Amino acid sequence: MHIGIDFGTSYTAAATFVDGELTHVMFGDAKQFRTAVFFPEVVPDPSRRRAAGESRAATVESFQEALFGDEAVDAYLEYGDGNLIESPKSMLGFRMDPQVRKVIVHIATYVLEHIRLAAGRQLGEEIRTAVIGRPVHFRSSMGEKGSEQAVEIIREAAAVAGFDAVSFLEEPAAAAMHYHKRLDTRQTALIVDIGGGTTDVAFAELGGDELPRIVRTWGLAKGGTDLDVSLSMHAFMPQLGNNLTRVPVHHYVEAASVHNLPKQREFRRQDYRLVDDPWRSRLQALQQPGATTRLNQTAERSKIALSSHERTEADLGFLEACLGVHIARTDMDQAVEPFIERMQRLLAEVRDEWPSVPASVFLTGGTSRSPVVKAAVRESFPGIPMVEGDPSLGVVSGLAVAATELSPSPA
Q1: Which residues, including other chains, have CB under 8 Å from residue 16's CB and lie 6 or more apart?
Q2: pLDDT in tens, 25-70
């Protein structure tokens, strides 16, 4: 049986078709899990048990101490030590030395084997092939070479995790395949997939009895995690002295960037003993294990709350007793303005380059829940009907279609 895997920046999911019915792989009671892994001590080597005659796949015992998703974050915050790796997908396209690359491969292996084993238990058979989603452009410091490196790392990790063959499908193309199933008649459509790490667009011919045809794709290596960082910088970091002390702004950016391990390490190495209080004690509290993760969670929860409420309150008591922030939706709008401007520039490029005016715009991806993001997409394509897909599971549903209908031979 072939499965589709949406290895996301923020959340990961998998699905397939069983007797013609879309079936999501369950992770506990949920159809997805936060893309985070916690190791109580060090990041182990999934291949360390390999020997002559043994399976190349990591065994259950080789990562029995690892935790995934929200359980991983909760364990890290409870124990205060160990290693929490959040959003490992964000690291795949950056320049790295061989040892760092080895660690990143190990982390991706753990995520993919967690998926493979969960799918196997649920479906009652060994899972050895998959179609894995990928953005048009990975977040990268090396341009297209970064995307090539990211795919190589995922392919290598999948092999160690026990997959015999994997292929890759661009995420907006996967979302297009999901939308294709909803259309009785043939039409052109623009797919806008705004995820945690990237924003991807595809122009496609969909619907009817013909196979879906992807005509063109575009991509931007920014998404929901950038909104979290922006909101943290706008609403929370002034409470730690940003623009009020001599502490450089980049220190606050590093603290907010929980998906970037080098930046996190750099922030924790800083010495704030000469900074005036209350900034000194708050910054030092933020350097404690788990504190930047708590701050990021608070920013993410605030972002979600402001999608449906005009105001919300954020508790920063883990930095200082009774410390909190009142945030209005207008604060959120100001914080995300740089992302909105960049996204609209991308959508303007799409408008200039598409081969014809599409019959509809299909909007999906977790970040598409945001009212300000949704409004910006609608503003970019006036007069074209906008159809909203499942923000969380649209891409993985399309990957399940691809896994069923397309050959799983390597891309």
Answers
A1: 1, 2, 3, 4, 23, 25, 119, 123, 400, 403, 404
A2: 999 999 999 999 888 765 555 555 444 444 444 443 445 678 888 8
- CA–CA dist 90, 259 (Å, integer): 7
pTM comes to: 0.87
Above 80 in pLDDT, residue 235? yes
Pure H helices in 139-223: 144-160, 171-180
At a CB cut-off of 8 Å and minimum separation 6, what does 192 contact? 172, 199, 200, 201, 347, 361, 362, 363, 364, 365, 368, 377
pLDDT of 255 reads: 96
CB 233 within 8 A of CB 361: no
Beta-carbon contacts of 51 under 8 Å, excluding residues fewer than 6 positions away, are none
CB-based contacts of 20, cutoff 8 Å, min separation 6: none
Report pLDDT for 282. Answer: 97
Query: In the prediction, which pLDDT does 48 show?
Result: 56
Tokens of 350: 């799409």
Token pair of 322, please? 């009774």
Query: What distance in Å separates the CA atoms of residue 203 and residue 217, rounded to the nearest whole number?
Result: 6
pLDDT of amino acid 58: 41
**Residues paired with residue 85 on neighbouring β-strands, in sequence order:** 37
Closest Cα partner for 4 from 404, 406, 399, 409?
399
Model confidence over 255-311: pLDDT tens digits? 999 888 888 989 999 999 999 999 999 999 999 988 999 999 999 899 889 888 999
pLDDT, position 61? 44
Burial of 218: CB neighbours in 10 Å, binned 0-12, 13-18, 19+: buried
Question: 63 with 24: CB under 8 angstroms?
Answer: no
Assigned token pair, 233: 């910088």
**Cα three-residue angle 296-390-362, rounded to 5 degrees:** 110
Cα torsion at 233, 236, 237, 241 (round to 10°)? Answer: 150
**Angle ∠(271,275,276) on CA atoms, nearest 5:** 150
d(CA 333, CA 361): 23
The helix (H) or strand (E) run that includes residue 113 is helix 98-123
